[in-house]
Amino acid sequence: MKDSNGDNFMEHDPMAETEFGSEMSGRSGESRMQEGARKISSAAADTWKQTRKGALVAREKTEFFLRENPVPTVLGALALGLAIGLAIRYSSRPEEPSLTVKRALREIDWSTISPAFLPGLIRSAKRGYADSAEAVKEGLDRVKEVDVDEYVKPLRKQWKKWMS
Fold first, then answer.
1. By three-state DSSP, how is residue 4 classified?
2. pLDDT at 49 over 90
3. What angle do CA 27, 29, 34 make, to 5 degrees?
4. Residue 122 has pLDDT above 80, yes or no
5. Could you point out which of 6, 34, 73, 147 has its C-alpha 20 to 30 Å from the C-alpha of 19?
6. Phi/psi of residue 26, nearest 5 degrees
7. For the residues 96-101, what does the mean pLDDT come to?
8. Taking Cα atoms as reference points, which of 37, 31, 25 lies closest to residue 15?
9. Helix axis angle, 28-68 relative to 149-163, nearest 10°?
10. Which residue in 28, 32, 8, 31 sits closest to 18, CA to CA?
11. What is the reported pLDDT for 117?
């Protein structure tokens, strides 16, 4: 090993005076590192360009789809907002004690109901049930008449295009 007094070291290469440093030529190690850094930088730049291009294409396709199909978009946004609102509502509500049938029956004041009023009470309950059942049937009939294929068909076509 050579004696060094500090004057014979290269400016940026502290290994130049060691046994290992004497085997390499002065700037070749540094130029290799710079070349490697340049390759990595160019690969990262190419990857970034490809990613950006893909994101722009996806954005354009999405914008085109939304402009061509506004009704499903609005309905989807409405459904998403409703789902988020319900999730927030139920997650932020304090725990309520669960109401069971037994507990509800225990809380009813049975002394106010006499056997004389029982048949009238049962008849009114039957009428109320029949009215509510009829209302539910009418609501279901109206829902069955809605033609959702008109809205779903463009979504299916676009989904198939995206997946192929």
1. coil
2. yes
3. 90
4. no
5. 34
6. -45, -65
7. 63
8. 25
9. 160
10. 8
11. 65
* Better-scored residue on pLDDT, 162 or 102: 162
Token look-up 């056997």 returns: 115
* Three-state helix/strand/coil letters over 69-124: CHHHHHHHHHHHHHHHHHHHHHHHCCCCCCCCHHHHHHHCCHHHCCCCCHHHHHHH
Sketch the domain layout of the chain as residue ranges.
Answer: 6-68
Whether the pLDDT of residue 16 is over 70: the answer is: no
Q: Which residue has the higher pLDDT, 3 or 91?
A: 91
**Residue 19 near residue 1 (C-beta atoms within 8 A):** yes
The contacts of residue 151 (CB under 8 Å, 6+ apart) are 69, 71, 72, 75
Kindly tell me the sign of the dihedral angle through the C-alpha atoms of 124, 125, 127, 131: positive
